[in-house]
Amino acid sequence: MKNTMTHDKNEEYVAMRKAATVAEKIEFAEPAKAEGNVLYAEGKYEKAMTKYAEVGDIRGVLGIY
After folding, report:
1. Would you say 36 and 48 are in contact if contact means Cβ atoms under 8 Å apart?
2. For labelling alongside 48, which of 14, 32, 34, 39 has CA 20 to 30 A away?
3. Residue 9 and residue 7: Cα distance in Å, rounded?
4. Predicted confidence pLDDT, tens digits, the chain (65 residues)
């Protein structure tokens, strides 16, 4: 199944999903999550959702976050 998220166009995200350990994925995704939290707190829900989607896309289907 092809992931159709726009993040597939970013080679860094694709490489991270394919080869990184769970710990590496968490570390890599943390800045996007933090930015999403700030956007959410500012009431910028649509932008926050985009950042959270990046986090989910980076971590794949780990079900850890």
Report:
1. yes
2. 14
3. 5
4. 344 444 456 777 777 777 778 788 888 888 888 999 999 999 999 999 988 888 776 666 454 44
Q: Contact 5/61 with Cβ under 8 angstroms?
A: no
Give the residue from 2, 27, 35, 1 showing the smallest Cα distance to 58.
Answer: 27
Find the length of the chain. Answer: 65
Q: Report the C-alpha gap between 28 and 26 in whole angstroms.
A: 5
In a domain, 1, yes or no: no
Residue 42 lies in a domain: yes
Domain membership of residue 18 (yes or no) is yes
Q: Is residue 27 part of a domain?
A: yes
* Number of domains into which the chain is organized: 1
The conformation of residue 43, written as its DSSP 8-state character, comes to T
Domain holding 47, by residue range, is: 7-59
